[in-house]
Amino acid sequence: MSERRCIVTGNVADPEELLRFARAPLDGQVIADLRLELPGRGVWIGNNRRLVSQAIKRNMFARGFREACKVPEGLDQRIEDRLDELALGYLSLAKKAGQAVHGFEKVETLISTGRLAVLIGACDGSADGRGKLKQRMRATGTEAPVIEFFSSGQLGLALGRTNVIHAAITSGGLARKFVIAANRAQKYRGSQDGAALEYEEKA
Fold it and tell me: Candidates 3.30.1490.190, 3.30.450.20, 3.30.1330.30, 3.40.190.10; correct CATH number of 78-189?
């Protein structure tokens, strides 16, 4: 897919770095097309909550579509929630496929075996525990993305538990998809806290 232009900044970028929005033909409601599946004309905004909020306040969707639009209340927050859901959906699939573990000891064991592909820590969990696992990674020469911006409740919901502080995914396609989706969700927040690194498949 060719590059697209952000209606807020005017910057041109690859579609993967932007958010696409569609307009419902019946009522003109603006819909965030996060999977790039909806038909019809679309407008694009940089993957950043601040830019989406600006577009809402400045009525830029109507200008982009060149038609009257209805912006759902809390659209910027809905997008953040949906991006989180998309990423955590891959974590849930990894768990069902036997490619994810949770709990400090299980994650530590996974690091020791050299099978760790992604380390995940809850942002509201103990910094000491998260630090020990990252120290274990350094001690074993393990290089893998570290994601620490989801809450323990979010991780628990994805993994079928009440709360989860430590989790990890082994190598494979689901790990790659999770990292890509998590990076997208993190970038939307506009903060580097808990950022994921680029995923590289282990040989």
Answer: 3.30.1330.30
